[in-house]
Amino acid sequence: MKQPFLIAGTIFAAMTLVACDPSTKVSRAEASSAQPPGQKPPTTKPAYIVFTREKTLDRAELEAYWKEAPATLEGHPIKVLSGYGPHEVWEGESTEGVVIAEFPSMEAARAWYHSPAYQKAREHRVKGAVYRGILVEGTTPQD
């Protein structure tokens, strides 16, 4: 993986070439993308966290978790796609509830999950219920 400063230097060099050499055969679209000619911009794949609540153990602990959890989202690029709505289990054991959250990348999802604020709220969740949490990388239109 390239270091961020190397990528930035490459982008700056490409922009400088385009700006200083009018004979450069680069389209306006390529020049404005800040990528070297012929090179596609890096794509970041979205990531999804799927939580399933398998069994409630202590309702009071769950309620404490539900009270604290929303504040853990602040400052994190998270989009809750589904939260404890109606669902059907087509295969496997029944589940009490499902939450699906989208992040712009696996790294962003990990940053939220491992944040001190979420880890503090999580203490109530693990005391309150048996959950399963899965982090999965999504696809991009190019895939």
Automatic annotation (TrEMBL):
Occurrences of domain DUF1330 (ranges): 46-138
UniProt-listed InterPro entries: Dimeric_a/b-barrel, DUF1330
Sections of the chain in a coiled coil: none
Any Pfam family matching the protein: DUF1330
Stated name of the protein: Uncharacterized conserved protein, DUF1330 family
